[in-house]
Write a structure and sequence with these properties.
- The structure holds two protein chains of two kinds.
- Chain A has helices at 36-43, 79-86, 113-118, 136-146, 155-165, 182-194, 212-229, 240-246, 264-269, 274-282, 321-325; strands at 19-32, 51-64, 68-72, 94-99, 102-103, 105-106, 109-110, 119-122, 200-204, 232-237, 249-254, 257-263, 331-334, 337-339.
- By secondary structure, chain A is of the alpha/beta class.
- Chain A has a domain at 19-33 and 52-271: Rossmann fold (3-Layer(aba) Sandwich), CATH 3.40.50.
- Chain B has helices at residues 48-56, 82-88, 110-121, 126-139, 145-149, 158-170, 188-205, 216-220, 240-245, 250-258, 324-327, and strands at residues 6-17, 20-32, 37-41, 63-72, 75-76, 93-96, 176-180, 208-213, 225-230, 233-239, 306-308, 312-314.
- Chain B is α/β, with parallel strands linked by helices.
- Chain B is globular and about 65 Å long.
- Chain B is built from eleven helices and twelve strands.
- The chains are: A alpha/beta, B alpha/beta.
- Chain A binds chain B through residues 74-75, 181, 183, 211-217, 219-220, 223, 238, 240-242, 244-246, 264-265, 278-279, 281-296, 299-300, and chain B through 43-44, 157, 159-160, 187-193, 195-196, 199, 214-218, 220-222, 224, 240-241, 244, 254-262, 264-266, 268-272, 275-276.
């Protein structure tokens, strides 16, 4: 593995905002261990090896308080894995994550309770992320009660208040998740996250499973909540138009690495990295009719065996010999604008 | 005027369930000509997929086509016996599904599956069938086709599988292809590749295509005509520019307003209140009236299909008639 680019001193965030989340050199590797048969075969000279997936590879990122950061990439780029590490679900293999100056992870365990509660996650599939055997009031009320945030007697009122906030009728609190539509279920998931008074929400493809008209309702809800509750978002999505709408800054990932970070307007106006350019030119837009598609060639390589140098070089129209050998560092090319591409030299 | 490749007239496909009749498709009419792409857009449960299945004769019990005509090259498919329909499927009419594994058999090699599809409809030798299969793979841009022919579906990536499914659809030079959300499960760059292949193939071969999707942005770049479905009916149809730039039906307007990213960054999205109604025992009248800002007593009656400006047909008694920018709040 090439050396990590220098952890970049909090500089990805506009100076105006106080940094709330700081990730430095965060990596996650998944290793598929050999079973007994595999080990035997290896002893006998077979080429079987342990397989390692570099899901996230040295990510440095700073999120300012009150900011919405969109994390964009295609399947297998590590965006969800990164989100899970931020949310305290998956321990990082390397690197540090700090929330408000306090570590999210301590020796492979979740750090302080306050930190863990302050970061909540909204999941993609509203059908899989709610316990089908719990009533809505239990789903929303359990965590604040267990953590002593509300007294037992006040739970009902607190649940009703939280439901109202996300646009659910509190009369439905005795119902089960299957009695709700997809959009309403996603609101239940949001209410569950909000119930522990978080300051930071990780939304992992939170609207991808919803119908278009319902998507708009949930996006509007996220924007309202941001204002009312002063929330910070890490908004993970493959849908660039949604990210363009909601995010202040955009982070583009490709095969486990960040390739570009910039303010939303800047990135959509003039993408710097060839991958960002390819991604943006592929986004279908309602105002582009009868267009000719000029797709990027090739497929996303397997993260089991990523190409050397710049991960994007096999698909990049501008790739040079250097791209095949040397990993480009994520460097600031203009104020607040970061890109990992040798072409900028 | 030449005959359209497909003309659907007042198609009705209903499902007779224990709880009541679900009118999944209720009086749908449209046509698509050779080399044209028709976009069929709607949300879940709008009946867009069932329309596609009805054309192919793939509607299962308890569903049944209860009315209307499906005129394929002038011949009505509805009364055809299953044996005749089977001859058409895979040869003259082909389908591409959202999940390519619905098309591909996981335990057979690609060459077996492709030659089988050729030989089922054409009287050719195995060697010739293999040649046709190979040519089809080349056409959809699969590198190393000989190697790929000898592979199994699990050895392909999702995008590659969908390419193979498209190659199979084009194998017998069909006159009509029905594509049901074929790019929904794919990544953006792979989606671009698939759209590119489909577009090129249609132009080259003169195949008519029905592209079923929930994503307005995808059809915007692809289709010539657009049908917007809601609760089993086409509420607005017409040339793509007219429908997207001057949406007349309040539902079409709402859908377009819900799509983020039209230089309205950070502003509230237009949202349609409520949700799609259950199709079970749907009350008469306009199905959209409970969510519609323009609804009044007139909407309690079934809105008739009327001709509207810019070559459109519409099911609404209170249409908008202005460019999008003027009516969108």
């Amino acid at each position: 593995m090439t050396a990590l680019p220098q952890a970049s001193e909090a500089a990805h965030t506009p100076a105006a905002r106080r940094p709330i989340l700081e990730a430095a050199g965060v990596s996650k590797r998944f290793v598929k261990r050999l079973d007994l048969a595999g080990k035997l075969a290896q002893r006998l000279g077979s080429a079987i090896r342990e397989e390692t997936v570099h899901a996230v590879d040295g990510v440095n990122l700073t999120v300012g308080a009150g900011e919405v950061v969109g994390l964009v990439g295609e399947s297998g780029c590590g965006k969800s894995t990164f989100g899970r590490m931020v949310a305290g679900i998956l321990p990082p293999t390397e690197g540090t994550l700090a929330f408000d100056g306090k570590p999210v992870w301590r020796d492979g365990r979740v750090g302080a309770k306050e930190t863990a509660l302050a970061i909540q996650m909204i999941f993609q599939d509203p059908f899989a992320s709610l316990d089908p055997r719990m009533r809505v009031e239990q789903i929303i009320g359990e965590a604040p009660r267990v953590h002593g945030m509300v007294a037992r007697g006040d739970v009902a009122g607190y649940v009703a208040e939280t439901m109202l906030r996300v646009g659910l009728d509190p009369d439905f609190r005795r119902r089960y998740p299957h009695q709700f539509s997809g959009g309403q279920r996603q609101r239940i998931g949001i209410a569950r996250a909000l119930a522990v008074k978080p300051r930071f929400l990780v939304c992992d493809e939170a609207i991808a499973a919803l119908d278009v008209s319902i998507q708009a309702q949930v996006i509007n809800l996220f924007m309202d909540l941001r204002q009312d509750l002063d929330l910070t978002y890490l908004f993970i999505s493959h849908d660039l138009s949604v990210v363009e709408h909601i995010a202040d800054r955009v982070v583009i990932m490709y095969l486990g690495r960040v390739v570009e970070i910039a303010a939303t307007e800047a990135i959509f106006e003039a993408p710097n990295h060839p991958y960002t350019q390819a991604l943006l030119s592929e986004v279908p837009r309602i105002d582009l009719r009868k267009r000719r598609y000029h797709p990027v060639k090739g497929e996303i390589p397997s993260p089991l065996d990523p190409p050397p140098g710049c991960h994007f070089h096999p698909r990049c129209p501008h790739a040079t010999e250097r791209c095949r050998r040397e990993r480009p560092a994520l460097r600031e090319i203009a104020p607040g604008r970061w890109s990992a591409c040798h072409l900028n030299d | 005027m030449t005959l359209p490749t497909l003309e659907v007239v007042d198609l009705k496909t209903h499902f007779f369930t224990r709880e009541g009749v679900v009118k999944a498709v209720d009086g749908v009419s449209f046509q698509v000509g050779a080399g044209e792409v028709l976009g069929l857009v709607g949300e879940s449960g709008s009946g867009k997929s069932i329309t596609g299945f009805s054309i192919l004769g793939l509607v299962d019990q308890p569903g049944r086509i209860v009315g209307g005509e499906i005129l394929f090259q002038g011949r009505d498919l509805v009364p055809l016996p299953e044996r005749e329909r089977r001859k058409l499927r895979g040869s003259k009419i082909a389908m591409i599904f959202q999940d390519p594994m619905m098309t591909l058999n996981p335990v057979l090699r690609i060459d077996t599956q492709m030659t089988e599809a050729v030989m089922a409809h054409r009287d050719v030798s195995k060697a010739r069938a293999l040649e046709i299969a190979r040519a089809a793979l080349v056409k959809v841009g699969i590198p190393a086709p000989d190697e790929r022919l000898a592979s199994y579906p699990h050895q392909f990536s999702g995008g590659m599988r969908q390419r193979v499914a498209i190659a199979i659809a084009f194998l017998n030079e069909p006159a009509l292809i029905i594509a049901d959300e074929p790019t929904t499960a794919l990544d953006v760059t792979i989606q671009g590749q698939i759209l590119h292949e489909a577009q090129t193939l249609c132009r080259e071969t003169g195949t008519a295509m029905i592209w079923i999707t929930h994503d307005l942005a995808v059809v915007a770049g692809l289709a010539d005509h657009l049908c917007v479905m809601y609760a089993g009916r086409i509420v607005e149809q017409g040339p793509i520019d007219a429908v997207l730039d001057r949406p007349a039906h309040p539902y079409t307007l709402g859908l377009i307003g819900s799509v983020p990213g039209r230089n309205r960054r950070g502003r509230r999205l237009f949202q349609i209140p409520g949700m799609t109604p259950s199709l079970l025992n749907l009350a008469p009248g306009c199905a959209f009236r409970n969510r519609c800002p323009r609804a009044d007593a007139a909407c309690l009656e079934e809105p008739p299909v009327t001709a509207f400006s810019h070559g459109r047909r519409l099911r609404c008694v209170h249409p908008h008639d202005a460019p999008l920018e003027e009516v969108l709040p």
